[in-house]
Design a protein that fits this description.
The complex is a heterodimer.
Chain A lengths: L1 E4 L3 H6 L1 H13 L3 E3 L9 H5 L3 H14 L5 E4 L2 H14 L5 H11 L1 E3 H8 L11 E5 L3 H7 L3 H7 L5 E3 L15 H4 L1 H18 L3 E4 L2 H13 L6 E4 H6 L9
Parallel strand pairs in A: 1-2, 1-3, 3-4, 5-6, 5-7, 7-8
Chain B lengths: L7 H10 L1 H7 L1 H15 L4 H17 L1 H14 L2 E6 L2 H14 L4 E4 L3 H6 L1 H7 L3 E4 L2 H9 L15 H12 L7 H18 L2 E4 L3 E3 L4 E6 L3 H7 L3 E7 L3 E2 L2 H15 L7 E5 L13 E7 L22 H4 L2 H6 L10 H12 L16 H5 L6 H14 L5 H14 L2 H19 L4 E2 L6 H4 L4 E2 L6 H9 L2
Helix pairs in contact in B: 3-13, 4-13, 10-11, 16-18
Classes of the chains: A alpha/beta, B alpha/beta.
Chain lengths: 247, 468
Amino acid sequence: MRTGLFVTCLVDLMRPAIGFAALKLLEQAGCEVAVPATQTCCGQPGYNAGDNAAARELAIKLALEFADCDYVVVPSGSCAGMIRVHYPRLFPDDSEPARRVRALAARTYELTDFLVNIAKIQTLPGYYRGRLSYHDSCSGLRELGVKQQPRALLARLPDVELKEMEQCETCCGFGGTFAVKFGAVSTQMADNKCRRIHASGANAVVAGDLGCLLNIEGRLRRIGDAATRVLHIAEVLAGEQGKVPCE
Amino acid sequence: MRVAALNFKRKAQQSLRNARLQSALGKIQVRFVQARAEAIAGLDDFAAVKRRATEIRENVLANLDAWLERFEQEATRRGAVVHWAETAADANRIVIEIARAAHVKKVVKSKSMVSEECALNDALEAAGVQVVETDLGEYILQLAHEAPSHIVAPVLHKTKDEVSDLFAQKHALPRKTGIAELCREARDILRPHFVSADMGISGGNFLIAETGSVLLVTNEGNGRMATTLPRVHVAITGIEKVVPTLEDATTLVRILPRSATGQDITNYVSVLTGVKNSDESDGPEQFHIILLDNGRSALLGTPLQSMLRCIRCGACMNHCPVYQNVGGHAYGWVYPGPMGSVLTPLFAGLADTLPLPNASTLCGACAEVCPVSIPLPDLLRELRHRQSEQDLRPRLERLSLRLWVWLALRPRWYARATSLASRVLHGLGGAKRRLRWLPGAGGWTDGRDFPAPAGSTFRALYRARKIP
């Protein structure tokens, strides 16, 4: 089963460890993993800014890069949602590129969804001991139905205690460029999220999207919380106490 | 009401700093979000009702002209007069003409968002007609000279203490603090108006084509009095509110109060049909129904048509994390929250409402709770697309986006640029691995640190690993 890993532009730039964690999980699940070297961005920033033409160009590029993969796996609900749900809307016609893009969409999965429902991973390579709270990132949750998958995987780590926060499905305020354009509103939304994380009694917050994690971590640190760890689900599942070697 | 959506950002920031408003907004979670969740859970098969409700609305829109003609025929047959208003100004003119012809001096109003859309009160007052709002929330706002901040709970932004102060001042009566006392005081003042008014104005939640009836859902009973006591009743609503049958209307009524306030049904559901017969003692002598277009029909057959399904329940704003934090006034017009961010640009033009479609994280909570399945995030994105097509986005934003796309399409340049960015930002992040300030990203760093990148990109590390 040839599986392409689309690491996403944010992971590539900001936190490569998440990419290596995803890689490790896919290999553990028995996948032959391909990581096309020319991959960049899925086009979501353009699409959400109304630049559909830019998104289309990047969609065609991505479809070519992953053409020989049986599956494409993405450690991000919003990028996976972009490809799976929104690409087909950008290519409704019957042209050759459109068919290719729609075929890509149909075989693209969010990481935890793929591990649970397609690869049916047996053993997890990671170890984690501690109290975690899981934040449901919006696109993964509402566009792809990612809800039970990460929790099912976390439940397999014997020393993880899941402490659900109130309103775990409420947006953290990231929203891509929204976080900068409407900084004050976004900050208050992040602040609400931080309060709920603190109230949960967890000492680490976990999510499936790096955008949310950067936003939550940024606010936690700004309000003086240097202790609460902010981890991607892949880092917890593949790492040693959340740490994944990058080399 | 004038559209003041361009300063959304400034007004939102003011809202965030307004402690009273924040405490008032805190009520949304219990009063609306939890209440709705419980009401939905109490329905046998919410998903099926929602599907049916969506079908009813979509089927009507597919033949809107035919259903409206049928409604007009049936309403006319029962003694009502149907008026067609293309614009808000037309609607106001029609109401004033009716008022003049019937020698109306005083109007009592039941809550109507379409009348807010038309700024009808101002028009009537300019024409010398006294207007008294009788919905408690609207009455409070009329006393305070404020605009509604929510389409169902117009006075959501006010606390009880503020209402106590307002009543004491405006009614010149001893200050009351209990909700029941405050309500009684308002009722005592409003009752004589119902009896002395010449005209009652209401909205219309649904127009029922098969009987020519106007259906109203209300909780306070004022709607029933305003529509039956005065000798003239004017119902004003949007052309999209028509449904084929009474049965369709009841399906929608199953879902409207549950989505709006978490009630299984509102205290009053009135089906108003025709005028008072000669052998009847109650009801208006004249029943005018004003059907407002104001840009609605232009949405038919476009990617935004589904917005016309809206039944004005307010669930989208109740569940919108942006609305929950900034309240309705920041949106600058009658309709706030996600539905408002779609409607306001359609009514007022894209250029005068630039922030609205962007003032959303596209989290999808609105679409999830919408009882008629309106894909609000997609509609917001469609409006962003139109802004982009019409070159209405700020220059800097367009340039940065262009640069990003240019790079993303050229992997070699992209690799160099991201490597450099990762190294530089990593260096700036220092030992704490975070930046307290980032040029050009003050929106982020004013309230949050920016976590620093690792110093090398994934692609560089992966390549190094593959080539030992």
